[in-house]
Each structure stands twice: as C-alpha cells, then as structure tokens.
C-alpha cells in the first residue's frame, strides 16, 4: 500500500508548500500537484495521480476542496477510486475510506449530495408548475413573430428564397424554416 498525495492551488501567486508539507508528514511517497482553478475539469496533476495509483494505494489530499469541484464531483471521484480498490484520505477533515468509519462518513456525504440534487429538481419543477399556472411558458421567446412570419410569406410569394427573406427580416434561416413549418411555438405579436 502506497500513500499518494495530491495538492492543488488556484493561482500562480499561491504556493502548494503548506499542502505538500502536510502530505509529506502524512507519509506520502509521491505528490502530484496542479496550479489551476478547481472549476476546471482537466487537471494534469490529478490525471497523472489517477494513472499512477494502483490497487490498495491511498490518494491523500490536504482538504476535500482540493480534490473535487463540487460535492457531486468529489463523490464521483472517490467512488471511482473505490471501484479500483483505491482508498481516499483527507487530512484536514480526518476522512479515511480505508476505515469503516471513514466509509460511513463518505456515504453520508453521498446521501447529502443526492438529497441536495433532489431538492433542486423539486424546486425547479415547482417553479415551472407555478409559472405555467400563471400562463407563462418556459424557454426563449420565438424570434419569428406573427408579423415577421406574415412578411416572410409575402416575400416568399414574390419569389425570394428563404435565405434572402431571412436576411431581409434579420432572422436566422433555421428559425424561419421552423416557423414556416409551424414547429416553433406560436409566433408572438410584434
């Protein structure tokens, strides 16, 4: 079993020394680093660490937020490690998935993450239902109003093609085709 460290800072002005020192004291044999925002999905240091890790190894981070972009992403990464037989340890939060207590805590995190996603979905559905009850429709307003559609039909009858009509009316060709076919929402009055 090898302890493999991962440290990340967001900007060049920041230094990984605090993290790498803590990871070294924890016994990490090798430490991978990134200087990149946590919101960026492509992190070369993390990718290298993931490739380096072998079954029964443990990925160690100084704090949870150094690894995951969000709670959902963190859970996804740790679940991927678990599926490969690799443990996970966070020094600051004292979470260690190689112990039964650490696995329990992480499963609680997973349940909380799922609960948060469910609440967001419920609020979104409730908001859409309330808006629909007030007569509001979701989505963008149609680009092709009933007035523009009428003008487009007149111009087409005069022999212009759809591209020329769309250019004159300052609308997209696809939007005009959809409106002419009746696939758009009901055109609005302009």
TrEMBL record:
**Residue ranges of domain Resolvase/invertase-type recombinase catalytic in the record:** 2-135
Q: Where is the active site?
A: 10
Gene Ontology molecular-function annotations: DNA binding; DNA strand exchange activity
Is DNA-binding among the key words of this record?
yes
Annotated GO biological processes are: DNA integration
Q: Which UniProt keywords apply?
A: DNA integration, DNA invertase, DNA recombination, DNA-binding
Q: Which Gene3D superfamilies match?
A: Homeodomain-like, Resolvase, N-terminal catalytic domain
Keyword Metal-binding on this protein? no
InterPro entries per the record? Homeodomain-like_sf, Recombinase_CS, Resolv_N, Resolvase-like_N_sf, Resolvase_HTH_dom, SSR_resolvase
Q: Which PANTHER family match?
A: DNA-INVERTASE FROM LAMBDOID PROPHAGE, SERINE RECOMBINASE PINE-RELATED
Q: Which family does the record assign?
A: Belongs to the site-specific recombinase resolvase family.
- Could you tell me what this protein is called? DNA-invertase hin
Q: Which organism is it from?
A: Pseudomonas antarctica
């Amino acid at each position: 079993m090898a302890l493999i460290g991962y440290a990340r800072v967001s900007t060049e002005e920041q230094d990984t020394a605090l993290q790498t020192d803590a990871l070294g004291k924890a016994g990490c044999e090798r430490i991978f680093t990134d200087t990149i925002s946590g919101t960026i999905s492509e992190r070369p240091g993390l990718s290298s660490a993931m490739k380096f890790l072998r079954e029964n190894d443990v990925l160690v981070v100084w704090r949870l937020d150094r690894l995951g972009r969000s709670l959902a992403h963190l859970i996804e990464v740790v679940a991927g490690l678990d599926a490969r037989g690799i443990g996970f340890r966070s020094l600051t939060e004292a979470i260690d998935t190689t112990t039964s207590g650490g696995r329990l805590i992480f499963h609680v995190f997973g349940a909380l993450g799922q609960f948060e996603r469910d609440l967001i979905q419920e609020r979104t559905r409730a908001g859409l239902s309330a808006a629909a009850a007030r007569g509001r429709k979701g989505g963008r307003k149609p680009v092709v109003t009933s007035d523009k559609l009428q003008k487009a039909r007149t111009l087409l009858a005069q022999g212009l093609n759809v591209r020329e009509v769309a250019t004159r009316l300052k609308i997209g060709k696809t939007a005009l085709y959809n409106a002419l076919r009746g696939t758009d929402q009901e055109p609005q009055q302009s």
